[in-house]
Records
---
Amino acid sequence: MAIHNVLIVDDSKTEIMFLSELLQKAGYSVRSAENADDAFKRLAEQKPDLILMDVVMPGQNGFQLTRSINRTPEYADVPIIMCTSKNLETDRVWGMRQGAKDYITKPVDAAELLGKIKALG
């Protein structure tokens, strides 16, 4: 499946701007959400080809949201890359256990992220 539409879920406007710019320059269409409620609204509006998920957010965190998305049949096939400052191996393992397809730590290395997206598509 080719990846064209990406949903960024992050509570940091700075991070959303950085990732949006990076992905748009690489030819992706980007939308964003700042929390779990926002994310489910965006999913209902248009199903993305990929979700970039922060972990540390108010309300439902990224691990919980990843698990919720993966347990929702109409979105379970959307790959999720955790994109977070949580850099412990246990965090990575837990993220993958919740259903993430990959895990990248902030600050995001542009080439690494684009490579991981390409590998999924």
Note: The helical segments are 13-25, 36-45, 62-70, 89-97, 110-120.
---
Amino acid sequence: MTQRPIEIRPYQADDNAALTDIWLAASRISHAFLGEEKLLEHRALVSEFYLPQAETWVACLCGRPIGFIGLIDTTIGGIFVSPERQGRGVGQALIAHGMSLKPRLTLEVYALNERTRAFYEKLGFIETCRRPVDDEGLPFEQISMALSN
């Protein structure tokens, strides 16, 4: 059985609902420590602000969105893959796409999000610093990482 190719294309406004759903489903796994109430607050920001304003690239399989990466200059603002598609190369393809566009990539990841941190390390990202709180001042340690092409 041949594996179908993943297509990566620019974000379109009609992707918003599907990508917001992917974000929430993936965040319930990777960011469960934030709690459901905080995730639902963030969902509105993702839908109304981050998706349309970042340089968002959508991974599709048979025309259906299965993940996305949001770039803000050379920073990965977020990368999320539908839980049923995780571990199948979608995230790697999105990172490779980002690397093809930018000479250097940086990101932040929650220290508690060990699986995602290990994913980034496997791809060659290295820790550059830590801070004890997240962007909202909550006590969730953030790790900054960088990758040079």
Note: The longest strand covers residues 64-72.
---
Amino acid sequence: MNTTVATEPVRVEAYSDTVKKLGDWTAANRFEVRGRSGYALLDLRSPRIVGDVEIRVHASRSTIKLLVPEDAVIDQWDLTFRGRGTVKDWEHTKGTGSRRVRLVGEIENGEVRIVRGGIAILTAMFSREFVDDCVRAHRAGGRPTVHDPADTHA
């Protein structure tokens, strides 16, 4: 497994706001997510993301939703909770996966939601970004990729 890590993390800020990063939006594997009374949605299913992923979280009264590959392993050992913080992963992967997502940092009265498989596809499809991607694909004669970033063939 390739564990190459980029030098600079991608920063995502959700301060009393909703931020959505869907589809094949980055090839980085290090992220810093900060939120205060906000909502951040990060799509980590892109085939361009190589190796393990590290997400440094600093969230207060915020929700961070991660769309991950079906076999991704979530490592929350270095995540600290204050108040009612939690990580919700209803479809825990069985065994070792192709990608490890390591969560580090602190959550205060917030949560991280892990979404995989068909639910991740539906989450992406029920967004304004998917509609915009469909319009773009139609005009360019291509295919939409927000619902499934690995679907890049013509």
Note: The CA atoms of residues 16 and 106 lie 18 Å apart.
---
Amino acid sequence: MTSRTGFFVLAGVLALVALICVGEGVQLIATGKPLGIGLGLCAFVVPVIGLWFLRQTVRFGRDSERLARELEAEGGLPVDELKRTEGGRIDRASADAVFARRKAEAEAAPGDWRVFFRLAVAYADAGDVPRARRTMQHAIRLHRTAGTTGTTTNKPARSSA
């Protein structure tokens, strides 16, 4: 099963669970008892959180793919230069060497989303998925900033205040 297919299956399950939660919440509120009303209102929170998470995941995937397409059009996608074992797994030393080079590139150009995109790929190849995701999110933020200013300078994030 591809990750995209898995995503759609899980999104469908999430939608089904959301409908069940809302239905149960309505029934609990209809009891008219204070405890039922409280639990019914809480049942509405679960789908909201799930749908928010689903939205964030879809947005991240869409933005990552957009950056990949743009980088591919520029001819800047990272090439797969990793050595692999006989079983097809990535050789750890090879991944570490590529990662060190990508990290140096990112330190040399802290405002360029392209180097952070390539660094995120290197993190993923090295098996560090959480850092790969955070680095890709940073690349997406840099791309948005570059798109609004027309440059690749790193602007501070907007405050929520």
Note: Confidence is low (pLDDT under 50) at residues 151-161.
